[in-house]
Design a protein that fits this description.
The protein is built from seven helices and ten strands. 21% of the residues are buried.
């Protein structure tokens, strides 16, 4: 049972809500400023050729742009020998269907990438009922170069979220953004990891509006509760 902080009349509630609205507007303004700073970040030229396994055959990083100038990649945790995607990444991915059309209208292509073989990706994607583009980088060092995969025995000098990687496992989630100019040159403009990708999870944003919030206090780790959407038990 949720215990309210206090019970008040409507006029008192409106006063409290307006005070909070002032803070929310300030946060929105600060977020806009931060987004502008993000857009002015320097870029890094990508000279390495990466090849991906897609339903349409082998494709390079340049091909993934599909004629647009921006490419947004979600690094989905699904290793080479996994038969299922990470439950947490699957939680994020439940927010992806349908967004590619809107992003495309803003000159941006969206795709998820994992090291798992394409056959495993397609099988899991079918199980989950998703339609967003999802391809395999298993034949390249793409995931390692962008600091989301850490094969066993290859941890020296590894970094995750812009700090030395000292975690367990071989896969981590993230988002990377690339730009392509009219000459065909490709540049890396931005990456985010860990809590830096929370903005891409609509369910979290909605839960943050509720009295109970995310309900993660007291768990062994914040996302312990998360299941793949077909693994939840029906409510009783």
């Amino acid at each position: 049972m949720t215990v309210p902080p206090s019970i008040v009349d409507r006029a008192t509630w409106l006063q409290a809500r307006r005070e909070l609205l002032s803070q929310e507007k300030e946060l929105t303004r600060l977020r806009d400023e931060l987004s502008q700073k993000r857009r002015t970040m320097p870029w890094v030229r990508i000279d390495k050729i990466y090849t991906f396994d897609t339903p349409d055959g082998a494709r390079t990083l340049a091909d993934l742009f599909e004629g647009r100038s921006q490419l947004l990649i979600y690094h989905f945790m699904m290793g080479p020998d996994w038969t299922e995607g990470c439950p947490t990444c699957s939680f994020w991915a439940d927010n992806f269907d349908g967004i590619d059309v809107h992003l495309a209208d803003r000159d941006t292509t969206f795709v998820a990438i994992s090291r798992a073989p394409l056959t495993s990706i397609v099988a899991y994607k079918t199980r989950m009922g998703w339609s967003f583009p999802w391809i395999s980088s298993g034949t390249s060092n793409f995931n390692m170069d962008f600091n989301v995969s850490f094969p066993t025995g290859d941890r020296e000098g590894a970094n995750y979220n812009f700090a030395p990687f000292d975690g367990d496992g071989e896969e981590r989630p993230g988002v990377s953004v690339f730009s392509r100019n009219v000459a065909g040159e490709i540049f890396h403009s931005y990456s985010a990891y860990a809590r830096g990708i929370e903005a891409f999870n609509g369910a979290y944003q909605l839960l943050d509006l509720t009295p109970k919030g995310r309900g993660e206090d007291g768990l062994r780790f914040a996302q312990e509760w998360i299941r793949r959407h077909d693994d939840y038990h029906s409510p009783t």
